[in-house]
Design a protein that fits this description.
This is CNTP2 protein. 2% of the residues lie in helices and 40% in strands. The chain is mostly beta strands and 245 residues long. The mean pLDDT is 87.
């Protein structure tokens, strides 16, 4: 496929922070890859480079954050030559690709949800997408509908389910005044706690607990965007331990 214009759109939701959403590459060195990296959306595009190295076509654009929140996000990529509009959840970013070429020259297949191992460096250490996609449209072709009706030829549809599995985790939302109090475990030598959290606030108390028999307390908080752990032990000479990250 050699195209001057491309329109690619889809919706996705995932709880994973890494994964290839779609990928295509060509014998001339052209490629297009849309993937999640550290819960951000990254578009890598190359309309061609020359062997002399004077034309370097690789272009990379990053947009969004916290996209692994298991909510639906919409993506639209509109390309006309070197001009690209990348829209994520109605927020549009315009840019021009590097190099001097206008056509995207790809091989016969484009993969959604991952990329085949080609032996090239681009295919190493990239995770496949894990989550849900819907309304996949590639240059006017409704890919989701064609895949469901098995009308994509040739195609390799591996272990797809045409429904969206919901996660088993149950989140808890705290406002500025709410808290959750649970019973402690006295007569235990070990104090252990783990949780996932997400917030837009730079500061706040995450956890507090007194030790039994007035032996001290432990506190976990966010202070100016950093997580801090404070442990106060009343029976030690160095009675306060502070760790921040």
């Amino acid at each position: 496929m050699k195209t001057l214009k491309d329109v690619i759109s889809l919706k996705f939701k995932t709880s994973e922070s890494e994964g290839v959403i779609f990928h295509g590459e060509g014998q001339q060195g052209d490629y297009i890859t849309l993937e999640l990296k550290k819960a951000k959306l990254v578009l890598n595009l190359n309309l061609g480079s020359n062997q002399l190295g004077s034309i370097f076509g690789h272009t990379s654009v990053t947009t969004g954050s916290l996209l692994d929140d298991h909510h639906w996000h919409s993506i639209i990529i509109e390309r006309h030559g070197r001009n690209i509009n990348l829209t994520l959840d109605r927020h549009m970013q315009h840019f021009r690709t590097n190099g001097e070429f206008d056509y995207l020259d790809l091989d016969y297949e484009i993969t959604f949800g991952g990329m085949p191992f080609s032996g090239k460096p681009s295919s190493n250490s990239r995770k496949n997408f894990k989550g849900c996609m819907e309304s996949i449209n590639y240059n006017g072709n409704n890919i989701t509908d064609l895949a469901k009706r098995k009308k994509l030829e040739p195609s390799n549809v591996g272990n797809l389910s045409f429904y969206c599995v919901e996660p088993h985790t149950v989140p808890v939302f705290f406002n500025a005044t709410s808290y959750l109090e649970v019973p402690g475990r006295p007569s235990q030598d070990l104090f252990s706690v783990s949780f996932l959290f997400r917030t837009w606030n730079p500061s706040g108390l995450l956890l507090f607990s007194n030790f039994a028999d007035d032996l001290g307390n432990v506190e976990i908080d966010i202070n100016e965007g950093k997580v801090s752990v404070h442990i106060n032990v009343t029976q030690m000479k160095k009675n306060r331990i502070d760790i921040s990250s």
